[in-house]
């Protein structure tokens, strides 16, 4: 047993629990009692499969890895990016979220825009502890890497890094939004409507582009505050036909105003602090309802029709 010997070898591996962090995982040769696992068991497994995949090793992206779970390569995960099969990677673990698409509070788009990718930072930015526990129900295995380096450790190999097609000239798009990418948008004007309401106008990457946001859907604003990614959903107030920009009307939740929320709103205060020329990132479209016109609309992709529509406006 591992505790019956006064000396035993512990293996160390470098892990990346978050994109901007580096940690160390200490792995014992075996597990206590009758539990399976440990680096000796893993090496025996690799020796048996050496003929078919001699360079395969288990990812150490998560400090709490289950050495007996199934493993997947990044190329395998990338194949699962459709409503029929939607996989994501969070902290080195692979999750099959297909069954949860119809139940996701933010609509299936919120998952599909990240399907087939490592969305650790974005998941952490917008989900509660309850959601993180719920995610474990959809865990199907762990990410593996080839050789001695992790996919995420190299900018050129990482899905967060450069694409293999970066040497090609960019194709000019009419629609600015790309559901699988964040686009940079520059603040070009800021107007105070009241003491705590602002009108922000952001320029699109190209002055002849449309935002490309269907009626009924929204966008994510993505900013980094103190090294941590923050994402919040907003609905532009400008028309879908506006070219080269979009507008947002945002209420600023200042700190030390509401006793239950002494720190105020993290994103709204950040937006209020922006100076003209500052840039943030936008991602979308997101949402499970899309209005098509003339009473036609879709809910979770299913066609619906209504002769009359009632609008309810709510807020603070």
TrEMBL record:
Residues binding FAD: 232, 234, 249, 251, 254, 267-268
Transcription regulation among keywords: no
Family affiliation: Belongs to the nitrate reductase family. Belongs to the cytochrome b5 family.
Keyword annotations from UniProtKB, A to Z: FAD, Flavoprotein, Heme, Iron, Metal-binding, Molybdenum, Nitrate assimilation, Oxidoreductase
PROSITE patterns: CYTOCHROME_B5_1, CYTOCHROME_B5_2, FAD_FR
Name of this chain's protein: Nitrate reductase
Subunit composition and interactions: Homodimer.
Function text: Nitrate reductase is a key enzyme involved in the first step of nitrate assimilation in plants, fungi and bacteria.
GO BP term (any one): nitric oxide biosynthetic process
SUPFAM superfamilies on file: Cytochrome b5-like heme/steroid binding domain, Riboflavin synthase domain-like
Domain Cytochrome b5 heme-binding: 69-144
One Gene Ontology MF term: metal ion binding
Ranges where the FAD-binding FR-type domain occurs: 180-292
Co-factor(s): heme; FAD; Mo-molybdopterin
Organism: Trifolium medium
Pfam families linked: Cyt-b5 (PF00173), FAD_binding_6 (PF00970)
Domain of life: Eukaryota
